[in-house]
Write a structure and sequence with these properties.
Strand order of the largest sheet: 6-5-4-7
Strand content: 15-25%
Radius of gyration: 23 Å
Number of domains: 2
Helix content: 40-55%
Largest sheet: 4 strands, antiparallel
Shape: elongated
Amino acid sequence: MKNKSKLSKFFSILEDFILLLISLSFVVFFIYQMTNDEELSLSSKISLVLFSGFALASIWVLLKKFGWVGNQTDPSYKHLLDEIMPAVSFDDTKITLQENNEKIQKIAWDNISKIIITIDDSLLPTPIWGFQLKQTSEPFYFSNDAKGIDDLMDEFKNKLTGFNDENYGVIISAMGAMEGTFGVWSDDHDHRID
């Protein structure tokens, strides 16, 4: 029952985002029509203005609902987004990946043999972190959108032997890329992957 509730909340958010995209599309269409078509009748222009006003009002309502403008945030959305966003956390011995507030994978710091970042050539390229482990062939993957990734990156220098500014440079290069695979760190003697 709990999963069904999460699913219905997710679809509610999805509907809101679709409304936002439709509204934005209509505003762009309005701007295009008003600037590129001198043959529009006065009634057509008035209709475009009214519908664009509705679209802008819809955008404003959604932005307020998600807390992107104003001081009022709908707490149910914030809570839902916290639940569905993956999160990484760590302590002195391990890294933990959580999805839907459930711990799904743990790896020991000393079991990491390589770290790579992969970016595919999708519409919205998202860096995917991959941790190759010493004791298994199955890598540990998570999205760069995971909560806690910044703190985890800061901890690399404390937990991974030889992790330094050069490794951070690879991360920065990967974050600016549209596609590719970037070797961030390895447990070999020079701690780099070329």
